[in-house]
Write a structure and sequence with these properties.
The chain has helices spanning 9-12, 17-37, 47-79, 86-114, 120-165, 171-182, 217-223, 270-276, and strands spanning 192-198, 201-206, 209-213, 229-233, 236-239, 243-249, 252-257, 262-265. By secondary structure, it is an alpha+beta fold. The protein folds into two domains: 9-159, no CATH class; 181-276, OB fold (Dihydrolipoamide Acetyltransferase, E2P) (Beta Barrel). The strands form two sheets. The protein has a five-stranded antiparallel beta sheet. Strand 7 (252-257) and strand 8 form a beta hairpin. It starts with 8 loop residues before the first helix and ends with a helix.
Length: 280
């Protein structure tokens, strides 16, 4: 049986040369902006010297904040995998921790460029506050960029798969699929796993989580007409690629999905299910 090969764009490509170069460009542009503004009493120094200071500080910050974001997301996912706000919480915690670390490093950079005579620990509180603001802004810009790239990758992946597996799907069907995905919050848009009818509502399960839509089940099936999936029950539709295994409970066939859901197969759709999964 075919398994799901799609990986989360945000995790699989975070450390590619292209992404590092893109993040570094954001950092350098922000350093230029700060060098131009000359904040924190830097009015009397040249633009070039200010630029050297901010490039050094911001690049050091990138080496602290980027791993902190990845580590924070990984730790929180392992501790609370089902927490709905884990992305936001991990972002906040990671920024706070990285700002604390960078606040301890920044006084050394300040002394390197300006040789100030004040005590190291006198500079730390202000450095932490400054890092929290500057690092937070740069991080939010980088995270926003990552979200945009991730959604672009999801759409590109779905379009390519439709072209490879369903060459007869028309442009209208592809548009209907994109319209359906656009109904989901941006953080829930991912590879479709299954749909579950719940009265007048529709529970949409993706590899990014679940979301409830006020939508009729049959209307959703029309929009997903060109997507590689099938109806397994009067209340369930599943993506073919998201079915990882099957099992029997008495005479009933159960589909095991990639998100650990178990989908029952009714007798009405048993023949169709076996055909879709190449079961004897």
């Amino acid at each position: 049986m075919k398994k799901n090969n799609y990986k989360n764009h945000d995790e699989s490509s975070r450390w590619t040369i292209r992404n590092i170069a893109s993040d570094s460009t954001i950092v350098l542009l922000f350093a230029c902006f700060l060098a131009f503004l000359k904040p924190f009493g830097m009015d009397n120094i040249s633009f070039v010297y200010a630029l050297g200071f901010w490039v050094t500080t911001c690049m050091c910050g990138y080496l602290v904040y980027a791993p902190a974001l990845t580590l924070g997301r990984a730790v929180l996912s392992s501790i609370a995998p089902n927490l709905k706000a884990k992305n936001v919480l991990s972002l906040v915690v990671s920024i706070l921790c990285a700002s604390l670390i960078m606040g301890l490093i920044t006084p050394f950079i300040i002394n390197l460029f300006f040789s100030l005579s004040s005590d190291y620990w006198d500079k730390v509180p202000f450095s932490i506050i400054a890092c929290l603001f500057i690092g937070g802004v740069i991080t939010l810009i980088s995270v926003t960029k990552a979200y945009v790239l991730e959604q672009s990758a999801v759409i590109t992946y779905q379009q390519k798969r439709l072209e490879l597996e369903q060459p007869e799907v028309t442009i209208l069907q592809q548009k209907m699929l994109m319209d359906f995905m656009s109904k989901l919050p941006i953080e829930k848009r991912g590879e479709l796993i299954c749909l579950q009818m719940d009265d007048h509502y529709l529970q949409v399960h993706t590899d990014k989580g679940s979301h409830m839509l006020l939508m009729r089940f049959k209307d959703a099936l029309k929009q997903l007409d060109g997507y590689p999936g099938f109806q397994a029950h009067r209340s369930w539709w599943v993506s073919t690629n998201a079915v990882t295994a099957t099992k029997r409970e008495g005479r009933r066939l159960i589909l095991l999905m990639s998100n650990d859901l178990e989908v029952p197969v009714s007798q009405t759709f048993l023949g169709q299910t076996k055909d879709k999964l190449n079961m004897s």
